[in-house]
Amino acid sequence: TRAFDAPLEGAVAQDAPPVVFDFQMVGGHCYRLFAVASPGINDISVEVRSSRGTLLASDHRADRIAIVQPDRPFCALADDAGSVVVSALAGSGSFALELASFSAPRH
User: Fold this and answer.
1) Which residues contact 41 (CB under 8 A, 6 or more apart)?
2) Phi, psi for residue 68 in degrees, rounded to 5
3) pLDDT (tens digit, 9 = 90+) per residue, 8-54?
4) What is the DSSP annotation of 3-34?
5) 107 three-class SS
6) Is 81 in a helix, a strand, or coil?
């Protein structure tokens, strides 16, 4: 299920403040986040932070594509106001991102 009604879009530049999107994390739900930047961005950085600013998940790539927690989804242990923080580590341009959520599997 999409966390937002449509893909989110914005523009970032190296040495400029990041773009921040707030969303409500639901305890017991897991999330997958993907972002793609325009060719002017050589390295896009995407992080997910808790309401306290704690880093919960981030991408590990150094290019125009960001896959947060590439090897697995990240899951919320409790309801919390989260934020997606997007910045350009190299270059400038536009980006689009998609955040999907689903119920954590029961074991």
Assistant:
1) 12, 64, 88, 90, 91, 92, 93, 95
2) -75, 130
3) 999 999 999 999 999 999 999 999 999 999 999 999 999 999 999 99
4) SSSS-EEEEEETTSPPEEEEEEE-TTEEEEEE
5) coil
6) strand
